[in-house]
TrEMBL record:
Descriptive protein name: Dynein light chain
Keyword set, alphabetical order: Cytoplasm, Cytoskeleton, Dynein, Microtubule, Motor protein
UniProt KW Cytoplasm keyword: yes
SUPFAM superfamilies: DLC
Entry's family note: Belongs to the dynein light chain family.
Taxonomic path: Eukaryota, Viridiplantae, Streptophyta, Embryophyta, Tracheophyta
Alphabetical list of Pfam families matching this protein: Dynein_light
Keyword Cytoplasm: yes
PANTHER family hit by this protein: DYNEIN LIGHT CHAIN (PTHR11886:SF49)
Cellular localisation: Cytoplasm, Cytoskeleton
InterPro entries membership: DLC_sf, Dynein_light_chain_typ-1/2
Organism encoding this protein: Xanthoceras sorbifolium
């Protein structure tokens, strides 16, 4: 059983690497499960392909909104997404909910945080 799980994990990682190569993605950092990484990479590639003609630059805000909405829908709130050609970040994220990658000159940071009600302390 352990051997089968290890083999399955290796196959997932090989498939992820193949997806990254096919889409010309550079995976910089992630602690997401492989299937979620696959979803993020493929969705980004699909959004870029369906965006404006190749002669114009994609709109980073539209990409970020679409990625966030898709991940909120599939994996629950609260996902945050930053897309651009240059940005710095320092974020706290939920375990298993972080990916940072680049596609050509565009970088994508997608991460999840837990939603908690903010209350005022008792006087």
């Amino acid at each position: 059983m352990e051997n089968r799980k290890a083999r399955s994990r290796e196959e997932e990682e090989v498939n992820l690497a193949a997806t990254a190569i096919t889409l010309n993605v550079r995976l910089r950092s992630s602690d997401m499960p492989v299937h979620m990484q696959q979803r993020a990479l493929r969705l980004t590639g699909s959004l870029l392909d369906s965006a404006a003609p190749k002669t114009s630059r994609p709109n980073p805000s539209h990409l970020a909104r679409a990625l966030k909405k898709e991940f909120d829908l599939l994996y629950g709130p609260a996902w945050h997404c930053v897309v651009g050609t240059g940005f710095g970040s320092f974020v706290t994220h939920s375990p298993g909910g972080f990916i940072y990658f680049s596609l050509d000159s565009l970088s994508v940071l997608l991460f999840k945080t837990e939603v908690q009600l903010v209350t005022e302390p008792d006087p």
